[in-house]
Design a protein that fits this description.
The structure is a single chain. Helix content is about 15%, strand content about 35%. With about 220 residues, the chain is an alpha+beta fold. The strands form 3 sheets. An 8-stranded antiparallel β-sheet has the order 9-5-6-7-11-3-2-13, with no helix packed on it. A 3-stranded antiparallel β-sheet has the order 1-14-12, with no helix packed on it. A 3-stranded antiparallel β-sheet has the order 4-10-8, with no helix packed on it.
Length: about 220
Amino acid sequence: MSKKPIILPEGFPFILVTFFFGVVLYYMKWYYLAVIPFIVCLYFTYFFRCPPRNNKIPAGDDTLVSPADGTVVDVSQDVEEDMFLGEKCHKITIFLSIFNVHCNRAPMEGDIKYQSYTQGRFLPAYKEGVGFVNEQGAIGITGKKRSILVILIAGILARRVVSWKNLGNHLEKGELYGMIKFGSCTELYIPGDCDILVKRGDKVKGGLTVVGRLK
């Protein structure tokens, strides 16, 4: 399983720039103003954190783990998915606030059989229908028992979908594969018979919370 640093390199430009401005203001003896970029620097360090979880990921080919940290804002049945799966699915939507960990993890082990990136608008990620108009990145994973689709949707503050994996790559269950910078949401589509183990309002953690059990 690939490893990532505790602070993702995508955050380094934000962290270094704000730290630099803080130092400049401090040496200009604008002490009170210097506090602002230092606080922002600390926030960026916090936002781009990536807690190690490889040794805590639940085992089993029949269970699906959450692809992201956040709050479940919708659980739907019989949702038609035409991008990759081509059938009706269970759909779990997870909203990521600006305070959640934004690393995304594979819900199950498998190969990336589909990958797409779509430019779009930047509506608030919690609003209904943003998956049709907002910038997004999707991967379809085919495992031993089933294929699933995960879509990362950019929110009003997000401006970039980041992917560390490519079409054909193999993913271990819970393995890091991408992120969206700043607030966003993640959709998980599961076809076939599956017990959904989360409900609206539940807090989930990527790679740790079991969201479904395949039958």
